[in-house]
Amino acid sequence: MNRKYRKAVIAGNWKMNQTASGIRPFMDALKEELPQPRPCEIVLCTPAVMIPAMIRAGKDCKVAAGGQDVSKYEKGAYTGEISADQLADIGAKYCIVGHSERRQYHHEDDMLVNAKAKALLEKGITPIICVGESLEQREMDLTIEYIAYQVKAALYGISAQQLRRCIIAYEPIWAIGTGRTATAEQAQEVCEAIRGVIRKMYGARPARAVSILYGGSMNAKNAAELLAQPDIDGGLIGGASLKPADFAAIVKATNQ
Ligand code: PGA
Asked: For this structure, is 106 an active site residue?
């Protein structure tokens, strides 16, 4: 983490867990645990229907609310979809795009991820753009090339000005929800490579300023070592973000 040039971000991804009525007790417990002042930006990405409850409960807690997906379309006949405008209107400041579960279960490709990131930027929402290789790709030594492709595709047509509002999350698919974390060296190697790709696309300064998160079984125990890496600026946390004490411990680990 290099705090001189970029901000540290700890974002929770609740996936399809919790309920709106469970948010208040969760936030009360979290508030007890969080350090004062906050050492980093804290975000909780919930199902869209829970965002208003999160904003109400997170107001005096300095926790920002985010979504987990968005439509690439602006508006119209897309039953079941939620637009960037609708997310912005209820106060979402962040939104995950291209999570591997969306890519896997909903067949989202890199072009769609790019369109969704652009739709969010248009409405002033920070996209948390997820990239990550499968175990097979890692074993075939394709990781760096594959991630470079994903990053280039996701950022296609995004201006340097807009890039300042983007966050990249490196989430190796084999580490998500498996309890199998990438080693700090493995995670650093890829996050450094991501910054290299951004440097080639936008130049040194914008690359230096982009926050790159690691995600995949990050927890209270392994967070400090991962966050100590020079190119890892925070975390995207699944399972551990559902437990107030664990999530707060990860937030505290940014303060090193
Ligand atoms: P995990 O999930 O922390 O439970 O591995 C991370 C994610 O999917 O964003």
From this structure: no
